[in-house]
Structure formats: C-alpha cells, structure tokens
Amino acid sequence: MIVQEVINYLEELAPIAYAEDFDNVGLLLGNKNAQVSGILVTLDTLETVVDEAIAQNCNLIVSFHPIVFKGLKKITGKTYVERTVLKAIKNDIAIYAVHTALDNALKGVNDIICNTLGLSNKKILIPQKGTIKKLTTYIPSANAQALRAQLFKAGAGNIGNYDNCSFNSEGVGTYRGNENSNPILGKKGEEHQECETQISVTFNKHIESKLLNTLFKYHPYEEVAFEVTSLDNYNQNIGIGMIGELESKQETEVFLNFVKQKMNVSCIKHSKLIKDKISKVAVLGGSGSFAISAAKASGADVFITSDLKYHDFFSAENDIILADIGHYESEQFTKNFLVDYLSKKITNFAVVLSTTNTNPVKYL
Ligand SMILES: [Zn+2]
Fold first, then answer.
1. Secondary structure of the chain in the HEC alphabet?
2. Is the pLDDT of residue 350 over 90?
3. Which domains are assigned to the chain?
4. What is the 10 CA–ligand 1 centroid distance (Å)?
5. Is the pTM of this model over 0.85?
C-alpha cells in the first residue's frame, strides 16, 4: 500500500475541503507514492514521536496537529519544529495532519467527546455554510431510476438523518443534433421531443468530480444537460463543535466529576455553577472560546472546551457554565479513534498508537 491509499481512507473520514482556511492539513512531508511500512498515530508530531516511528518501523506518521503550521523559512534545527522536520526527512518518514478537517467532520473530534460522555441526539454546534451544492439534470424518464440510484451511491442526496433525497419532475425535452452528432434517441438533423425527468439532488462539494463522472457514465445521452449550483444553506453534517443530551439530568457537580473521570483530567477550570442540573451539553475539542456565543445560543447548560482566557469566563454570564478541561485532554482520544478507523481499513501492516504523551502542559 502506498501513502496515497492511506490518504484516501483519511479523506473519506475527514475531507480536506472542510478544513479551516487558517489551517495546514494534508500530507505535510514525504512522497505520496512511497510504499508504507507502518503507520504511527499521534496527537502531535515531536522529535520523540519520530524516534518512536523509527523504532516501530513506521514510515508514515498520521498526526492530529500539523507540525508545520505557519510555514518554515529556515530548517537549521534551531526550533523543535525544525528539528522534528529534519529528523523526519533524514529518516524518510512522511507526515500527514488531519486537524480541522477532522474537527469539522461528522464522525470527528467532537463526536468522539460526545460518545465518551454518552450523549445522544447529537447535532453539529456550528454547521458550515457554502459546502452544499445542487446537481440538476434531465434524462429520458425510462432511465431516471437507474441514474438516481447511481447518484445516491456516489454520495448525493444526504440531508441530516435522511438519504436518497431527490426532487423529480416530468417534462418534455427537445433537441436537434448536427451532422456530427450520434443521438441515441431521434435522428440527426431532426428536432426530437422526449419525455424526460428532471432530477435534482444536493451533495457535499468535495464529491463534485466523482458525482459528475457518475452522471456522465450512467446518462445515456451523447451530450448531458446538467447544472451545478452552490447553495447558501448550512450543512448539518459538516462543522465544528457538537451538542448532545444526557440520558437523564445530572446534578452539576456530579456531571463535572463524571467528565473528569471520563476525559481523564486532573482538574477542570469552570465558571460559576449557575445551574443545579445538567441536561444539554455543548462540546468543542481544542481551543473553543470563539464558540461560546454559539454554545449559549444552542441552549446548552454547559460548554466543555479548552484554552479559555480569564475574560472568557465572564462571558458565561447567567446563561451557561463554561468548563475548560485542557487542550490535550479534550483531543486525546482522537488518536485512539484514528487507530481504530485505520486498522479496520488496513490489514496488511500495523497501525500503531503512539505511547508518547505529547501534552506540553503539566499540573502539580
Ligand atoms: Zn488542538
């Protein structure tokens, strides 16, 4: 198996098209056509993690955070980033980072936190805009059912908890082919009328080329009439943060202790405990201060995230409890999840969970 095949699996889970603009995700280092000897999965790529990859005979590191974030102007070994990159290059080790592509995925970082806390009725906290497109095409009615099935198979027609969604209307299409044409219905040089079905389906933008290839493959006409339009709708399946509900209300302190235990944290920094009981929970792995207002608007009783500053805690007001569980702690299970995911897809070599604790924050 080559690096690109592993990337294809990762992209199925967390398409790079939905990573944040500020981010640096994807293959950061290495050759996509290189044969993979083994994969090491980590939250952060540090020099010690590269050492671990060498010892484990892994020439691909799948990392949550990107080691190269801002851009490197010199690689002299002066900083930990430069030293890590140098060591990886010297040892022919590729590095792939998922970061916000996995933050924004439906089955990503925040789904993992929700599952760890046993939350149900999960929904994305901040759904992305500008990621849904619509395909409309016109096809002889006799062929409509077969094409629809192929478009669904290619990933179109998913809305929230529903799949196979489409709108269809019957009408009459007309065309006349010139001397170079070869119409499957009608004769060249003569106007033809055909009973056609107009099919409209929505799809996530990253599958556009795959969907158009499917359309051209299964549409019987020589020239396929179609339109692709971009929609402004929020995407219920892509976005950052998540809200979910506890099976039954829990006393606030009982719940926070439960979070400590489940998320393996030694302390939680929190705002005033303004609620006696917790039912609705908002979560956002990593730095989440930008999502405080969204968490409040969602009606959540508590917002579990990290990297909150002193003044962020004031903004809880009397609406919500803000709980900072630590950046590493909030994302730590992501690496276990990636190992499980890749292990199911790849059986011919090892997918290894890094045992290096890369958390730079220590507690007394
Ligand atoms: Zn992070």
1. CEHHHHHHHHHHHCCHHHCCCCCCCEEEECCCCCECCCEEEECCCCHHHHHHHHHCCCCEEEECCCCCCCCCCCCCCCCHHHHHHHHHHHCCCEEEECHHHHHCCCCCHHHHHHHHCCCEEEEEEEEEECCEEEEEEEEEHHHHHHHHHHHHHCCCCCECCECCCCEEEEEEEEECCCCCCCCCCCCCCCCEEEEEEEEEEEEEHHHHHHHHHHHHHHCCCCCCCEEEEECCCEEEEEEEEEEEEEEEEEEHHHHHHHHHHHCCCCCCEECCCCCCEEEEEEEEEEECHHHHHHHHHCCCCEEEEECCCHHHHHCCCCCCEEEECCHHHHHCHHHHHHHHHHHHHCCCCCEEECCCCCCCCCCC
2. no
3. 3-98+333-353 (3.40.1390.30), 109-126+240-328 (3.40.1390.30), 131-231 (3.30.70.120)
4. 18
5. yes
